[in-house]
Amino acid sequence: MKSISIKELSNYYDKEVTISGFVDNIRNLQWVQFVIIRDDTSKVQVTIEKSEESNKEMVELIESLPLESTVKITGKVVESPKVKLNGMEIIPSSIEVTSKSDEELPFNFKDLNNVNLDTRLDYRFIDLRNDKNMLIFKIQSDITKYMREFLYEKEFTEIHTPKLIGTASESGSEVFEVKYFDDKAYLAQSPQFYKQMAMASGFNKIFEVAPVFRAENSNTSRHATEFTSFDVEMSYIDSSQDVMDLEAELIAYTFDKISKKYKDKIKEVFNMDIVVPKLPFPRLSLSDIYKELEERYNYKVDESEKTDLTTEAEKLCYKLSKDKFNHEFLFVTDYPADKRAFYHMRDENGLLLGYDLIWRGVEITSGAQREHRYEEVVKNAESKGLKDDVKFYLEFFKYGCPPHGGFGIGLDRLTMLLLGVPSVKESQFLFRGPNRLNP
User: Annotated catalytic, 436?
Assistant: First the structure.
């Protein structure tokens, strides 16, 4: 008999079923054994009466079975209001041990309050058994699902670009070099070049969900050397405003779906409220933000620092957006060209036609209208000293390429902020940072 998930058991009252899972708890009383079985959907009580001769073998098995062993149980599902756990129990006819756990776990994953984070990450396969951690990734999975759903409905095409590239992309720095047979290659910092190649190929609307790699020696709560990026690109735009509008709609759609499914659970487990953002999202230029921060909060920085958002200015943007617009999100525009990648389009004053999206004091997106004109993109690459390094990329624009733009959202960072998780180390399935390459 094929195993069914525990959450499905209410459909099988008075029927025999087979379930599989971890032994979550055992209460071995004088006349009865209560065994709690856990899978990734729920938990259920298995009740074994010791007085019944036919149960002797199962009773002996459970008496010697360590917690966190895995079992396969066949038995009858009984509706039982007296059972606190979901008002049901299984009366087993057979129990098979599919794996036996060691007697002592590295730590108690049910109470992580006093467990060092590095220890948890060393034993991430144990850490993830925690109900709260399991919920993080169920929600993250649905975030991805709803973002995909939104784009599919708008007839975007999902593509898959290579992560091994022959030249150091974008800035020419902060890339991982790897041996590639008798040559060398690099891990892609983003799918940016290939997203734009898709535009030059005639794909009007594309997206990708995939890992990207950054060789940044940053040890902060929001940085990682490998993370999952949700990248979008589209053609025939009139301005970067079209890109911002699409991203705002995407986020509002996704948060609405997540709120409907998880609002109460997120409040219960993470003590966080999901605010479904209203459209349109507010926007301010970089220079106006620094003026507002000084006038409202007396936040002052040297003129030399006003070419980008400082970490503190990023944090204050959340307060500014709430106070000025009653909105959690804020688009920051009009960055100087020397602070951004060469493929961003610039206006007649040298300002980039791009933006950052700030949410809850953290940048979650960089987006822009891209430079699609061959002569201009060559000139921009030359200004960064990259013309020879990106020669293959420049070819994309020689034979016609429509106006286009796009953005990338860090999925792990978005999850971290949505759930109020302290660090991206906990919103990534397996964290990679300057000092962590295992497990």
Answer: no
Of 38, 223, 283, 372, catalytic: 223
Nearby residues of 316 by Cβ (< 8 Å), 6 or more positions away: 293, 297, 299, 361
Angle between helices 411-419 and 240-270 (to 10 degrees): 50
> Is 238 strand, coil or helix?
coil
Q: Per the residue annotation, which of 216, 249, 292, 376 is the catalytic one?
A: 216
CA atoms within 13 A on the CB side of 259: 11
Residues 429/432/438/439 CA torsion (nearest 10 deg): 0
196 in Cβ contact with 343 (< 8 Å): yes
**In what order do the strands lie in the sheet containing 157-158?**
157-158, 205-213, 226-235, 404-410, 362-369, 354-359, 329-333, 283-285
Catalytic-residue membership of 413 = yes
Residues of the chain with pLDDT under 50: none
pLDDT of residue 385: 85
Q: Which candidate in 321, 366, 370, 404 is catalytic?
A: 366
Asked about 27 being catalytic, the answer comes back as no
Active site residue 214: yes
**Domains, the chain, with CATH or none:** 6-99 (2.40.50.140), 127-427 (3.30.930.10)
The predicted pLDDT at position 176 comes to: 95
Spatial distance between the Cα atoms of 192 and 170, rounded to a whole number of angstroms: 8
Preceding omega of 280 cis (within 30 degrees of 0)? yes
In the set 38, 283, 340, 413, the catalytic residue is: 413
Tell me, yes or no, if 222 is annotated catalytic: yes
pTM: 0.94
Task: Determine which one of 149, 249, 292, 363 is catalytic.
Answer: 363
Closest C-alpha among 200, 209, 202 to residue 232: 209
pLDDT the model gives residue 384 = 85
